[in-house]
Amino acid sequence: MSLFIGTSFTFNSNAKKPFLLDNFEDGDLINQLKTNWFSMSDSNSAMKIEIKDSGVDSIGKALFADFEIKDGIQWPWVAFGCEFDKQKQEYNLGRYNAIKFRAKGKGFLMTQIVTTSTEKTYNHYTKGVQLTNDWTTYTLDFEKFRQTWGKPVEWEPATAKGLNFTFVKGGGMSKGTVWLDKIEFVKLKK
Ligand SMILES: [Ca+2]
Asked: How far is the centre of ligand 1, averaged over its atoms, from the C-alpha of 104 (Å)?
């Protein structure tokens, strides 16, 4: 009985701690959930990601993305991201209520949470931030995420499947670079 209570307490305690998805210090494109960071784009555009020494703010290595968004389809786009499970199972993001990361670059970076109901038609819940040339910490409350097109569905963080960082044409630049570091899921006090 006491063992059960102890286990239960440990679980709840962990749930309130931030979960560090990746700080890139191990130098690879595999995150703490053991899934790969990948890049993708429409067929005319290009997105390349790698781990590099950021050289500033004592944060060591960071993810560096180099991209070009080209005309050719109606809504040109590039992205990078990860799934949360190797077997593509759901990951319960309902334990947290925000995503926090450090970034610098140019343009309008859109953070998307992929869930079971939005992965079918790619109308993921999304929150955008305007990047600057200085490293900035962004904390994005899940409450501020919105679907920007398509059929509205419920926000269901318990059915999260993955994370995308996306740029689209018209978002401030069509060619550029962005740095990203220390990606965490956190529980904000409310
Ligand atoms: Ca780092």
From this structure: 13
